[in-house]
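Instructor's aside before we start: the two examples that follow are unrelated to each other. I chose them only because their records fit on one page, so don't look for a connection. First example below.
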Amino acid sequence: SQLEKLDSVEVPPSKPSFITADAGPPVCPARHQIGGSMTDMDKELRPWNDRWSCGMANLNDGLHPLHRAGFATPSLFETAPSQNWRRYQDMEVEHGVWKSIKTKRPCRFPPLGV
């Protein structure tokens, strides 16, 4: 077995990733890519919306209190035509391909406490 190891092709060690302090690249390279799917209110299969951390609430501290987004009240800037470039009402189906998140049927459970 030692002789077989010496005769085999030597594989260089993997380079450390510049993104993290880990010793090597992640075991699952597809971990940080768009993936997964689910059905929406219209029973249409959609890919998972990976933009959960991108929203109008990130800009709340710079907005007037009447324009801020909350759990039950959306901001008026989310649907404003001047803010379409932020794509708050869209999801990325494929890299560079966007689709609206609006559904034909209303939500099953509307926001409470409004």
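Example two begins here.
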Amino acid sequence: MSYGFWTFTGATASYFVTHPIDSEFYPVQRLGIAFQTAVVGLSSLAAGIFGFTALGIFLLGIRVAVGISSGELDPQKQSDDETVRQSTAEKVRDILTKDPVDVVMAARRAKEKAAAAVAQK
């Protein structure tokens, strides 16, 4: 997408240079130039954002591959501890991908287990 936006930026900039605004009315000239600037500016901004995002994802993929090959990361490992706190994103993912009743019951069991552990102390 970054390359596409960058190509679009160059194409629109060259089009706007070769096809100037042919109006003698001053507000039309100014609005046309503002529109041209917005199109070229936003497309180059989008190209940069997508480019840096793609670079970051690529570098993250390399880091994960290095972590897996060195044994630091194990993609097959499942958590054995039910008391591990889930992030909000993980809770939403579980609700959307699993049976909601099972998710709620697992959360209730975890709360009861935590309450029992506090009561024992």
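The chain has two domains: 2-70, 88-120.
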